[in-house]
What does this fold into?
Amino acid sequence: MSDANVRIPEEAKDRLAAIAASEGLSLRAYLARLAETLLTPQERAERAEKARAALEEWSGYAPTAAEQRDLDNELDRRLAQVTDR
It folds into this structure.
């Protein structure tokens, strides 16, 4: 496997290296694990759609697009409250 070079601020590299070390990993291994475990936006959308379909099958709940937007906005509002955004 070939390596790639990524330019980030030194402070960010040091922080990531400290996090990696606290988990007993090299920075390279930590970043590789991070890349394997995080979802892309497309993967998140696919999982959300599967969850929505399962919920509908299980409960019959099928919100309209407008209801979904309202629920998303409410979730965003609540998350902003707890994260002080």
Q: What stands out?
A: The two ends are 40 Å apart (CA to CA). The chain has a mean pLDDT of 93. Residues 41-59 form the longest helix (19 residues).
